[in-house]
Amino acid sequence: MVLLEAMSRAEELRKELRYHNDLYYNKDNPEIDDFTYDKMLRELEDIEAEFPEIITADSPTQRVGGQAGEKFSPVTHSVKMESLHDSFSFDELRDFDRKVRETDSHPEYVVEPKIDGLSVSVEYTNGVLSRASTRGDGLVGEDVTDNILTIKSLPHRLRNAPAFLEVRGEVYMSFDSFFELVKRQEENEEKPFKNPRNAAAGSLRQKDSKITAQRKLDILVFNIQRIEGKTLTSHKESLDYLNSLDIPTAFYSKYDDIEDVISEIERIGDTRGENPFAIDGAVVKVDSFSSREALGSTAKFPRWAEAYKYPPEEKETKLLSVEINVGRTGVLTPVGNFEPVLLAGTTVSRATLHNIDFIREKDIRVGDTVIIRKAGEIIPEVLSVSKRGENTEEFSFPTICPSCGSPVSREDGEAAVRCTNTDCPAQLTRHLIHFVSRDAMDIEGLGPAVIDQLIESGLVKSPSDLYKLSFDDILTLENKKEKSSKNIITAIESSKSRELYRLIYALGIPHIGLKAAQLLCLEFKTVDDIIGASVDSISSIDGFGRIMAESLVQYFSLESSVELINELKALGLEMTPSEQKKSGIFDGKTFVLTGTLPSMSRKEASKIIEDNGGKTSSSVSKKTDYVLAGEAAGSKLTKAQSLGVEIITEEQLIEMIK
User: Fold this and answer.
1) Which of 114, 194, 285, 300 is catalytic?
2) Fewer C-beta within 10 Å: the chain N or C terminus?
3) For residues 226 and 614, what is the distance between their CA atoms, to the nearest angstrom?
4) CB burial class (10 A; 0-12, 13-18, 19+) of residue 137?
5) pLDDT of residue 293
6) Between residues 580 and 18, the one the model is more confident about
7) Is residue 6 very low, low, confident or very high in pLDDT (cuts 50, 70, 90)?
8) How does pLDDT run across 638-652, given as a tens digit for each residue?
9) Distance between alpha carbon 20 and the CA centroid of its chain, in Å?
10) pLDDT(66) > 80
11) Are 338 and 361 in contact (CB under 8 A)?
12) Which carries the bigger pLDDT value, residue 502 or residue 327?
């Protein structure tokens, strides 16, 4: 490769890697798997090693990919949170060992699993958890203390603690919690998280810690960053010490031979499906702290540690059949049934085929041999057809609903095919499960099994029928005793006083999630106001788009929807208005906050704005009235200047409220 070719390819790779860095670290929505990303990064490293004169300071090889977001206050790390250099072969690990031995002739290594989660720092002052922050770009992260405090396995107070302790760990979501979350998202026809890592990152960055708590995050600590009041000399000693403080760590083992290290990495890879958490590799660390100090670090990586990345496992299997599931809003989803195959430690026999466009794009047919893998080692997905089956035919999507036999339709520009019958039994089941869920009407005791019984018995054909149930009705169901029947009736009665936004969300209107329902009910006080609202008035709400507004208006234009609302009113649902926005000098004004303020956090500034009737937004648009800018304000300030939005300082904000 000549210099000009190297420069061109390197810049192409940098641009691609920055794009994927932003999706992975900052938006929690990657488009490619880790292995593909790591290969691209390795290619760039190799080019820059051959042509060091083309290395740039902002190259992805020189810095961690994330950056501190603007939802939370920034935290400057006293100890840089470095990334790890990756190996993709055992020969590369042997080369790592050779380089280490140039400095330490008899090294000992600690091997740990590489948890696929979000790296965080947690600080304890005099034994009390005082602050937690994300890695960000390694130098500056986000303060996520309130959300870290929702993790039950992490002690908030330490016994026999040192004066100060800062640890680094990986926040993750267990497989069980992930599947539970994805199931809820699919039932609500929301876009589900792709893997536990994205789910953990998205959950940890919630502004409302109550939402984070519902996501059931966990953590495993793998390093001590700083400690005062105790001296430690090795990594294994530090992990043993963390365990003595009841701080959770992953399993680890110690070796003095690189071949034993490789054997342990193979063992971890072979058994990774047995863990309750996702791992994407194994980490090898020099045990001695004095040896680590002698080895030092590059601009981005420590020279005393190496990560071995497992390649994504792909297998061939035969597609036996395609079944169609009907969702609560009538969307027909194709699911493939395969010959069972062992993949990443578990047996796989089913995988979603998403929609008709996906099937046609890959030309998937029953009888084909297909290549499947697990995205993020969790959700099975079909990559491609590897061998065409004999006498196969193109898959024909059904023209009638498999649940009720009604015609199906597909709107222009949408991938989804829907059943046209609003009384479809399959829709009813999923709709009722959503209606009674925790974020909606929150009717405890009405789980999927009970709802199935209510539908099969003919007692419930609509959400309104839930409020017509009697104690004797519940008692007729299988396995229902007097106490549980009474509890269900009490829960149904209690749900009548839920806020209006919860009912709007419970109705399962396409494109209207929980946040949208909350915004809507801050603008419109009663359900009649919402029913009478126009597309223009709804889409003018900050946070609402035209498609959402049209979906809402279309739903309430149906006679059956208005009849349901009137029936629920007659049955005693109060539809309590949401707490209205506080009035004040900032009534109707939208603020965007950016940068570090001189004397207050952005959270404190937001409260001042909201207490005076204003509201805050995370993005700058033509609807923004003010941008409150502090030190190191970034792209939001630039966009505000280009749009002519008024920019104010903290001092000006204080003057305004005076």
Assistant:
1) 114
2) C
3) 41
4) middle
5) 95
6) 18
7) confident
8) 788 888 899 998 888
9) 16
10) no
11) no
12) 502
> Which tokens in the block code for residue 209?
């810690």
Helices then strands, counting H and E runs in the chain, come out as 24, 22
Residues written for the chain: 658
Q: Report how far residue 511's alpha carbon sits from residue 547's, in angstroms, rounded to the nearest whole number.
A: 8
User: In which element (H, E) is residue 486 found?
Assistant: helix 482-494
Query: Which residue segments constitute the domains of the chain, with CATH numbers given?
Result: 3-54 (1.10.287.610), 74-309 (3.30.470.30), 314-403 (2.40.50.140), 425-570 (1.10.150.20), 590-657 (3.40.50.10190)
Residue range 200-211: mean pLDDT, rounded? 85
pTM value is: 0.53
Q: How many CA atoms within 13 Å lie on the side-chain side of 440? A: 24
Task: Give the CA angle between residues 491, 495, 500 to the nearest 5°.
Answer: 170
Known catalytic residue at 615: no
SS (H, E, C) 397-464: CCCECCCCCCEEECCCCCCCCEECCCCCHHHHHHHHHHHCCCCCCCCCCCCHHHHHHHHHCCCCCCHH
CA distance 157 to 362: 54
**290-331: per-residue pLDDT in tens?**
999 999 998 778 999 999 998 777 889 999 999 998 877 788
629 beta partners: 594
Closest CA to 26 of 72, 58, 69, 84: 69
Quick check: 606 and 616 in contact, CB under 8 A? Answer: yes
Lowest mean pLDDT among 122-126, 179-183, 204-208, 594-598: 594-598
Q: Is 373 exposed, middle or buried (0-12, 13-18, 19+ CB in 10 A)?
A: buried
Which residue in 387, 411, 381, 408 sits closest to 397, CA to CA? 408
Residue 28 has pLDDT above 60, yes or no: no
